[in-house]
Amino acid sequence: MKRRNFVRATTAAVTTGVILPVTAIGRSGDREQDTQDRMINHYVLFWLKKTLNRDEKEAFTGFFDLLRKVPGIRSFYYGGPADSKDREVVDNSFDYNLMIQFDSLEALEVYGVHPLHMEAIEQYGHYWEKVTVHDSVLEAVK
Asked: For the whole prediction, is pTM greater than 0.70?
């Protein structure tokens, strides 16, 4: 996906509410309690261009250094595929993955259009050939 289309699609998804609001899934009327037991998980897979050399692939980590500065992030992790056993259901074809947790959907929405996020995409978007984003609501197991 071209960088401009990725930015446009990401911004459209955030601004139109494509991501299911936390309160829509609530199991009780106490929103404060629900949000304490839940978080928004933002999981992204990156497939970098095959033409990049090792140094360029390593330089891509500057993308994550920029993103981690966006306010409102609960936790932030990035890495590459694990050397797990090959199984039919495992897809380790990606180069990098990113997992960010937020306390609320609102914090994710702020992140999605934040100037640092946009700057990171502008600076590093030419490195990737494919990106997939998975946003979900996670509940604590009691």
From this structure: yes
